[in-house]
Amino acid sequence: MNSLLKLQQLDARIHVCHAREKEIPKQKTKYLAVRERLAAELKEREQKVKTLDLEQRACEGDIEQKKTAILKYQQQLNSVKKNEEYTALLHEIDTVKKGILQKEERIIAIMVELDEARARLDVDRKRIAEEQKGLDKQCAEIDAELSEAVKQRQVLEVERPAIAVHVVGDLSAKYDRLRKKYPSGDVVVPMKEEVCSGCNMLMRPQIVNEILQGHKIHACQHCGRLLYHPDNFTEESAGKHEAASGVEA
Ligand SMILES: [Zn+2]
Predict the structure, then answer these.
(1) Which of 27, 78, 94, 174 is the most exposed place for a label (fewest CB within 10 A)?
(2) Across the chain, what does the average pLDDT equal?
(3) 240 CA to middle of ligand 1, Å?
């Protein structure tokens, strides 16, 4: 019985390790979200610069086209005969010139915006790189914590056979079956006040007596957990009752 309790203690610790191994990686999820937000932020800043740059080139191209158009109109001025046509061409040239002025004003505004956007991109790029470095560090810490938990579990698993070997006969199989049925929590439980502390059901008087005598290990007829009386299994009595390992339900 003592070996059984030791095995149960060890299995409980292994179970805790398994649970930690499942929980630890979840901490990384929030860091991944921050990482994505930072990447999006950087992309937005870069896009802003790119868009302004493109608009500036478009304005410059437009101005070139307008200048070519003006040259063409000026050549046409030399060949027109009618006054109205001449006036109309002059009006056209004037309109295109105004258009050029507007584009030139826009280019000046863009250059100011570009300076600001580039400066902001520089600052943000540095800040984001710093933040990402911090995230990398935190993720590395989580990875280290996880591998530590795995290592701890592996150490316990190595210890297990040496303890399990003392749980003999059908008791071993019975324990393994109960472990599967109740993966967390105890499967070897004390009887308290004639009640199974696993399922809180009352035991039959005869079984209570036999458990009290400590000669047999009984399984609870309600939940199947193995029962013992705490007084019978103190540290000092270790080994004394090992012989009485037959299971009776
Ligand atoms: Zn029970």
Answers:
(1) 78
(2) 90
(3) 25
